[in-house]
Design goal:
GMP Synthetase, Chain A, domain 3; 2 domains; 134 residues; alpha+beta
């Protein structure tokens, strides 16, 4: 992945520019924004579920298993003291005709999600400042 540029676009709208695409965020009206786009934390949550989803989809595609009726219901528990999520739960809901022999394997596929692996690896963040044009 090439570097990502983040621009402050007015109001509470913040846009990430990455690989020729733009991803806008905003804050809800409750948080002083216009609610015109998902909040950054909502995108974070969506990245977990959609990442697991792509691995489940790929698993099924490789085995010619239809994916109609498969849904992932994501929920979380929140640690109010630390003010961060303490548990993410992904419930992969399978249709009744999903092959029994692949039920555990589809969980293993979802576990391959790079977003989940990254969170579990506890990466270090380095935040610095610089002067534009330097």
């Amino acid at each position: 992945m090439a570097g990502m540029e983040v621009t402050l676009d007015g109001g509470k709208v913040i846009t990430a520019h990455i690989n020729g695409k733009s991803i806008k965020t905003d804050q809800s009206a409750r948080n002083g924004g216009g609610g015109s786009a998902p909040e950054p934390f909502e995108l974070f949550l969506a990245s977990i579920g959609t990442c697991a989803g792509i691995y489940v989809k790929s698993f099924c595609d490789q085995r010619n298993i239809p994916t109609e009726g498969i849904r992932i219901i994501q929920s979380m528990e929140f640690d109010t003291e630390k003010r961060v999520p303490s548990l993410f739960k992904l419930d992969i809901q399978l249709p009744a005709d999903f092959p029994e022999k692949y039920r555990a394997a589809v969980i293993n596929a979802a576990e391959l999600c790079l977003v989940k692996k990254t969170i579990n690896a506890s990466p270090v963040f380095e935040v610095i400042t610089s002067v534009s044009g330097s």
